[in-house]
C-alpha cells in the first residue's frame, strides 16, 4: 500500500496548548481550519457542532442598553472554546469533559451566555481550568511510530546529559567537596569537547541532585531492612560545628550471611535526652508525597515532597486530607492517579477481626455490666493524657489486644479520632474552668517562662478559694508559645491576653513570679499598687492637679490643633493592665541558701573546708551521673542511688542528705568503699562534720521551702509565720528581734487564717498593725452598701444613708469574735461572713510560683534521642514500619542516656518492644575505659601519658620548635617524625602510635636535647615551661644520654622508665590490635570473645618474660650490646639506639623496681579487662543472653562426641526462651531447634572445624542443604551475628559529619548532611555508581516538566 502524508496525520493533535498564548494568536496554535480530534474532545470539524460560524452572530445578551454577541475570532484566540448557535451558549471542552467534580461550578461546563472577553480570559487563567486542561492533554493518543522514535531519541539524549551531571554531583558528594565546585566540574568536560548542556549547572541543582541520589540510596536501605528478619541498631550523639546536637542511627543486618551496618538517619535534636517528641504523620499512607511539619491552630502543617526543592507548606484539616488532593490536582496532575491509588489502598485495608458469636456469648455471661463504647473511648483518652503517653499508642497492636481482651465488643479508636477527642475535651475543660472562675470574686495566678526545642513558652496557672468549702482550687490556664524576645512588654501583652481570654482581668488579686528582671519590670510598668494606681510609666499620681494658677493661665494659652490619631496611637503605658506582683518566696529562699550563703567564704578556714568538701561531693555525683557502671556500684553497695543536684530548689540539700543517710545506715565504710572503687578522694572527718552541720543548718530552709511550694493547702497567710519561725530556728542566740513589722497586708493575711491568728509572733506592734489593716478594710465593702428596699425622698438622704448602717459595727464585732475563738479549722470563718470574705481575698494568692514550675515539668515530658531513632526509621517509609518487631539489640557507648536502666534509650526500647532486646556497650569504648583505669592505678603510666602530651603540645602549636627538632635530628642522622597526642584521643591505637613515634631510634635523643635547649633559651614562657617540665622528665628518667658532638654532664642514671616505656609499648601493641579488630564493621561476637581470650593470655605471659621480638626484648639486647661496646671501645662509639651509660640497668635495684612495676601493670590491666568484659556486678537476663551465645563458638566445643551432644543444652534453652517473642514471630519451632543444634554441632565438628567464624556461618546461612536442614537453629545464629559488638561506625559517621559540615559550610541542613554522609560512607565507588535510577526519579519529580535543554533552546 502506498503511503501518503495523510497516513502520518490521520489524527492530528495539539500536544500542549500554551496558556500564555491564550490572549492572542500564535504561529504554533492551530487555526480554525485545522482539525483537532481526540477521544472525548469536541472538534471544530464536527457536523453536530461547527467551530466556525457566520460573521453576523445573533445578539444573545442585552444589559443596560448594551448588546453583547459572540465573536468569531474568539475561537482562534481560545482553542478550548466551543459555541452552540442553537442554544446561544459557549462552553469549555476541557471543563465539560472533566465535569463539575474537577472543574467546579463554572458555567463553562453547562453553558455560558456572558459573551465578554474578560470572562474568557478569567476562565482561561483559572486554576481549575488549567487542571482540566492538563488532564485532557495527558490522555491524547500516542504519537505515530516516527515521532515516537524521535521523542525517545530526545529523551535518551536528555537522560544521557543528566547522567553526566548526576555523576559529577555524586563525585562532589563522594569526595566531600563544596557544592560551588559543581559548575567548574561541568565546565571542564565541555572544555574537553564533551557536549554538556549548561542547564542545571549551579550549586542549587547540585544540592538537589545529591538529595535525589541520597533518597535512592535510602530506598535501597529501606528494602534491605524490610527483607531482614532481625536487626540491631546503633546510636550515638554529638554536637556539630553549628553547636546543634545530632543523633546518628545505624542499623545492623545480615546480607548474604555477613553482618553489615547501614546508615538509617542523621537527626537534629534539641536536647540529647533519652526521650524526644514523637512526630507521627496524620496520614501515613501519603508519606511518599507529603511530610508532617507540625500544627497550626486546629490544622496540620504539611510539606509537599513533590514540590522540592521549593518548600511548599499546606494546611489540612484534622479530619480530612482534601486540601492535599486539591494541591495534587492543581500542581501535580501526573501524580493524581498515584494519590488515588494510595487512598484506595488505605480504604481497602482488612477490617479488624471481630469476635465470634461464641466469644460474645461467653463475654456476656462473664461481664455483669455492659460498658459503652463512649466510656471506653473516654477511658483510653484519660489513659493517654494523664499518663503522658504518645498518641500512636492506640495504634499499637499490644495495646489494642489489651483493650480487646477486656472488652471484646469494643471498637478501638484511631489516633486521629483520639486527637479530635482531646481537642474537644480541652475546649470543654477550658469552658468549665472559665465558668468556674466566673463564679468567684478573687483569683490569683502564677506565671513563668520556659524554653525547649528552640521554642519559648509562657505558662500561667490560676488559683482560687471555693467560697463554700474554703478549699483551694487550681487550674492550668495556658502553656503557649511565646515568640520573640522575652522583654517586659511582650510578657505583659501575653499575660494580658491570657487574663482576657478567661475573663479574669478584674478579679486577679496578685500574680506570683520568680525574680526575673523582665517580669519585675513588666509589673513595675504595667502593674497596679494597692491603691489601683498604674505603675511608674502611667502613674496618675504624678500628674499635677489643676489649681488657681492654672485657671489663671488658661486664658492666655494658645490653641494648638493636633491630629487626633497621634495621641491615640502613642504608647502611654496603659495598653496593658497587670495585677499586683508577688515575688516567689521559694525562689528568694533558694537565693538565700545558695548565693547569700556564699558570702561566708570570706572566712578563709570556712572557704577551704567548703571547697574541699563539695569538690569531693561533685566528683562523686558526676561519676554516678555519667557512668552506669558507677551508678550500679553505688546501688549494689548502699541499696540506694546518690542524688545529683540540679537547678531545682532544695536539690543540693537533698543530695547532701542522701550522702549522710548512707553514712548513717551503712557506715562510713560504705562511702569509703565507693570512693575507692570510683577513684574519688575519701572524705576526712572534718569534711564529714561540715556536711553534717550544713544539713543541720539547711534543714529548716528546706522545710520552709517545701511548705511554701505546696499548692493544695498553701495560703498567702502561711508566708510570714513560716519565715518568722525559720528565722527563730536559724537564730543562734535566744533573744529574737521582732520580725518584719512592715507590709500590713501580709500581716493581716496571716491573722485571718484560723491556724495562726495572733500566735505566730510575740511582737505586739506587728499584731496591732495587722488588726488595724483588717478593721480598715473589713469596713470598706459595707460603706458602699445601701438598702435597696428603702425609698428616700432626697438625694442627700440616699447618699448618706450608708453611714447610718450598722454594717461597720457588725464587721468589727465579727473580727473580735473571730479572734476570741480557739478553733483552728477553716470552717470557723463561715461563722463570720465579713471576716471570711476578707480572708478569702487576701489568702487567694500563692506565696510561690511552684505551680507553674510543675506545669513546665509535665510539659517537658512531652519533648522526648529515642524518638530521634524512631524518626530516622520512619523516614525509610511504610515498608519499614514494623522495624521495632525486628530489633533484638541496641549498641551504644556507656552514656546513661543510652544504656541507663531506668531512663535511658534501652529502657524505653524494652518498654515498647520487649525485654528481650539486648543492650550492648560498645567494646572498643569499654577497652578504652579499662586502660584509663589502668592509667589511674599506675603512677608511672600516668607520668608517661603526661610526658607524651607535653611533647605533642610543644611541637603541635609551634612550627618553629618542630623545625628546630628536625635540624637536631638531621645532625644526628635521624628522620624525625611529628609527635602524636594521647590525651583527648578516642581510640587506643593512637596511644600505641604515639609510643612507637616516641621510641623511634634516635627520636628520643633528639627530643631530649631540644627540650633541654628550649628550657634555657625559649622566649615563649609557655613553651619554656612545657620544655622545663619535659626536660625534668628526661633528667629524672634518663640522664645517662650524652650528645654525639657535645659533652653532657653525667648525672644520676635511671633506666627504669625507659625500659617501662618499651614494656608498655609491647602491652599497647596487642591491645591496639584488639581495638582495631573490634572497630571492624563485620566483627561478630565469637571473634571478639576469642580475641579477648588471646589478649588476656599474652598479657599475663609478659609477667614471666618480655614479649618475644618485642620492644622491651630489643631494648634489653641493645643495652647489653652497648655495655660490651663501651667496655671494648670506650666513649667514641656510636650505637644503634643511643649513646650513653647504661650500667645501672643491670643493677639489682633497677631490675627489681622494673619487675615490680611490670607485674603491677600486668595485674591491673588484666583486672580491669575482666571487670569491663567478663565480670558484672549484677547479671541480668540480657547480659546472660550474650554469654549464652558462646555455645556457637566451635573452637570451645569439647572433643568427645558424647560431651559435644550435651554441650550448651541449658544455654540454648535460655536463648530460645529469652528471644521467644521474635522467634515465634518468624515461625521458629523451638523443639526442632534443639534437635537441629545437635546435628549442627556434629556436622561442624566433623567437616568444618577448620573454618573461620564468618566463613562458617556464611556457608551455613546461604548454602543448601545446610540452610534448610537447620533453618530453626540458624535463627539464633542470625541473631548472634547482628549483635552490635562495636559502635565505631557511629563515630565514623560523626567524623564524616565534621569533615562535611565545616566552619565554611555550617548552614547545611540536617537532611543534606545525612545525604552527604550516606554517599560518602556507604555509596559505591564512582566507577560502580549507576545514575540512571536517580535520573529517572528526578525526571518524575517537580511541579512542572523537567527541561534539561532549556538554555540550549533559548540560544
UniProtKB/TrEMBL annotation:
Biased composition (Basic and acidic residues): 48-60
GO MF annotations in UniProt: protein dimerization activity
Coiled-coil segments: none
Superkingdom to which the source organism belongs: Eukaryota
Pfam families named in the record: Dimer_Tnp_hAT, zf-C17orf113
Annotated Polar residues bias: 1-10, 20-37
Domain named TTF-type: residues: 66-148
Compositional bias segments (type: Acidic residues): 547-558
Residue ranges of the region described as Disordered: 1-60, 534-558
Protein name according to UniProt: Zinc finger protein 862
Organism: Merluccius polli (Benguela hake)
Gene that encodes it: ZNF862_54
